[in-house]
Here is the input.
Amino acid sequence: MQFRHRTSRTRRVRTAVVAVGAVLGTAALTLSAAAAVGQSSASAAKVFPHGTVHADGGLTARQAPSTHAPATYAYDDGAEITVNCKTKGTQVSGNRDWYLVSAEGDAKWVSGRYVKLDGEAAHCGPDVTVSAKATRTTDKYEGPSTSDRKLGRLDKGRGTEVLCYTYSGPASNENRWLVTLDAEWIPAEALKPAEEVPFCEQA
Here is the structure.
């Protein structure tokens, strides 16, 4: 999937609308806009692939895509699950993919290492990024926990592009984490986004 900056998409849409209006007039523009909305809705149809757990002794689901996040559920070997979306997190036996399970209650993230899907999972978050600036120098992590492996640092005042957020524990701002376009996790308290950042789920 290719991610875009939100401002770029807005500029392209505005240019297209002006051009169509100039040529076809108000009535034609209304019809074209309606058709575009219909096409957009069709192309944006959500897909929730099914998966089967392959883990001797079962698979622990966690509050966030990290082996250090609190456990929220346990799936038996052979259990069937429905996946909402995927993102990157703690590496498990060489695999950094984590799936958000579609289920009621607390978030249930499971390592892709132990799940076989019957189709491709959508990426968590929208297909556009949100610009953010570091309010202090901060470490970047493999998963949403300070116990995860460090992947580098982001200096105060430097910018980055973020996709979405999740919680690594109880729902409080101190435990909110943002994942960047480079699949690095940063504490939300260390970043100032240019606009609201969506939750890590299928957009």
About this structure: The domain at 128-193 is CATH 2.30.30 (SH3 type barrels.). Confidence is low (pLDDT under 50) at residues 7-43. The chain has one helix and 15 strands. The two ends are 13 Å apart (CA to CA).
